[in-house]
Amino acid sequence: MKGIETMQKALQYLESHLKKDISVKEAAREACLSPFQFQRTFHLLTGTTVMEYIRRRRLTLAALELKQGNTRVIDAAYRYGYESPESFTRAFRKQHGCPPRDIRLPERKVTVYNPLVIQVTIKGAEPMKFHIEEKEGFKAVGVKREISCLHGENLKKIPEMWVELNTDGTVEEIAAVNNGPVRGILGICEDRSDEKEGVIDYSIAAASVNEVPASMTSISIPKAVWAVFEVKGPMPQAMQEKWERIYSEWFPSSRYTQAPGPELEVYPEGNPYSNDYSSEIWIPVQK
């Protein structure tokens, strides 16, 4: 349960800094994760992004202070991280349905977001098929892009990348060079947050021993111990649901933690929208 304990420490850090500057990197350190891993885990466990959670909590506290009638709007705006009363008013109206000055009216209600508490739900009714495998490093070739994770941008940009490369025929070109040790199209996520905060490299690629085509990039997958999870069902729902279960059920109850290195989604041939479609998630782990 150590992962849940460290995530709770990260939440306590966020809560204690709502009236101060908040560093996602520092919150990630409390969770013993990289900034990218922290933001991904947070979203999978809570259904919202870190920055959206911070925004909701700050606007909740600001509204409660204004409701008491002892705080000026401009003071609340600056106290909770807004650069101007105008930007504060826009965000406030979006959450509470009225401008800050009107929240004091008796008929106005505060939309409250309470502090999150991370808990483990013991399920066990549905088995999770996985195995641990040590694999030598290999080369993949494909298309790599730098993607920002700030404000959940990756949640939009990565699906858009898949649509684009499927539509223009690039995925078929990548599949044609797939003769390496892993069969299928790979979605490769490489965490770069140590060198550039809030950024990952995402690649759509295939394992290959061929020369790298001029239109593609070489991606090195290092030797690692992998937790390989079976994913059964149509895309993208089955993949999203399995990621959520891995972080909310498997990691908290297993003897493994996530190790540095790229994460892989493996998409073999077949109809990805079929209920019988089988794909995989590969996560580097350590005891």
Automatic annotation (TrEMBL):
Residues 8-106 form the HTH araC/xylS-type domain. The keyword Zinc does not apply. Keywords: DNA-binding, Transcription, Transcription regulation. InterPro entries: AraC_E-bd, Cass2, Homeodomain-like_sf, HTH_AraC, HTH_AraC-typ_CS, MarA-like, Reg_factor_effector_dom_sf. It comes from the Bacteria. Gene3D superfamilies: Homeodomain-like, Regulatory factor, effector binding domain. The keyword DNA-binding applies. This is AraC family transcriptional regulator.
